Amino acid sequence: MAESTFLGKALVTGAAGMLGSQVILGAPDGATVVGTDLTDASGVEIPGVDLADPAAVAALWEEHGPFDGIIHTAAYTAVDKAEEEPELALRVNGTACDVLAKQAAQSGIPLVLVSTDFVFDGHAKQPYKESDPVSPLSVYGRTKLAGETLAQAAHPTGTRIVRTQWLYGPRGKHFPRTMLELAKDRDHLKVVNDQVGSPTSTLELAPALWDVLGGGEAGVYHAACEGSCSWYDLAKATLELAGVEGVTVEPCTTDEFPRPAHRPAYSVLDCARLTALRGAPLAPWRDALGTYLGIEAQ
Ligand SMILES: NC(=O)c1ccc[n+]([C@@H]2O[C@H](COP(=O)([O-])OP(=O)(O)OC[C@H]3O[C@@H](n4cnc5c(N)ncnc54)[C@H](OP(=O)(O)O)[C@@H]3O)[C@@H](O)[C@H]2O)c1
């Protein structure tokens, strides 16, 4: 696999989040990292900064810069709540990308911006390529797309968009963790079987983001674990690999669990461009899930 060539000083946003925390832990040897989030994370030296505020970002540069690159994972990620708070979601997912991209352009440094499969409508029958038409179904998807567009306009030569999906990892709230929690109290779970994607471990994605920062080019990359499944398949695999017994999982349809935000029914990503950059794909989703659950069990 290709080594990340990033050896400079990086700003990682969303440092207290599920992905950002793993990006910091997975920083390559030789890189210096400054992590930032909305609030100071206890126990870690992280300056709290609202990235949608240009003055706050300028002050961050003044105090902690200059930086040689940015990995931007911070976002408004409450997909259903975003339907009620479109302005706040746009401020965080759109405006903050614009502010950071302008700062990156001024500094002449690359910006890796993490985006989502929710920019697609899910009507495809084969994995989405980076160049496929976008058509988000939700406020969250539209605001993330706005972030992509604003960043590319502000810093066309330095913006590297990495779209990913179905994340889980050692930190934060996510689907496999929710299934394991529910299985403590219930012996029967009903899980949606008509949405298909690729569960992706932050342990797999974090090194890929460093490689894109170190060796990528401007444009869009898709990044997800190999293979695909439904949420029902993922629930079953989680319980099985975690050794949970006595819990049955029943498939159901999205219509049986109506949620405020519409989600793409099929959002598998074609990751060939990232594979070409790194010399290997991310691990198969079931292997990566097993690795993660093994770490959790320790
Ligand atoms: N989770 C997934 O399945 C998934 C799938 C596809 C793409 N993504 C993308 O992957 C990235 C990381 O997602 P994640 O699941 O790790 O998210 P997360 O755990 O919610 O972390 C995002 C972090 O950004 C912070 N933040 C929110 N508003 C901010 C602002 N104005 N300024 C600075 N920081 C702010 C959040 O702080 P608070 O918690 O205090 O609000 C949070 O710590 C995001 O770009 C997301 O859109 C996620």
Biggest beta sheet summary: 6 strands, parallel
Which CATH top level class of the domain at 9-173 and 200-226 and 268-283 fits?
Answer: Alpha Beta
Strand order of the largest sheet: 2-1-3-4-5-10
CATH superfamily of the domain at 9-173 and 200-226 and 268-283: NAD(P)-binding Rossmann-like Domain
Considering the chains and any ligands shown, give keywords for the structure.
298 residues, Rossmann fold, six-stranded parallel beta sheet, two-stranded parallel ribbon, 9 helices, 16% strand, binds NADP nicotinamide-adenine-dinucleotide phosphate
3D architecture notes:
Helix 3 runs parallel beside helix 4 and helix 7 packs across helix 9. Helices cover 38% and strands 16% of the residues. The protein starts with 8 loop residues before the first strand and ends with a helix. The strands form 4 sheets. It has a 6-stranded parallel sheet, sandwiched between helices. Strands 6-9 form a two-stranded parallel ribbon. The mean pLDDT is 94. It is of the alpha/beta class and 298 residues long. The radius of gyration is 19 Å and the shape is globular. The protein has a domain of 208 residues: NAD(P)-binding Rossmann-like Domain (Rossmann fold, 3-Layer(aba) Sandwich). Bound molecules: NADP nicotinamide-adenine-dinucleotide phosphate. NADP nicotinamide-adenine-dinucleotide phosphate (NAP) binds next to helix 1, helix 3 and strand 4.
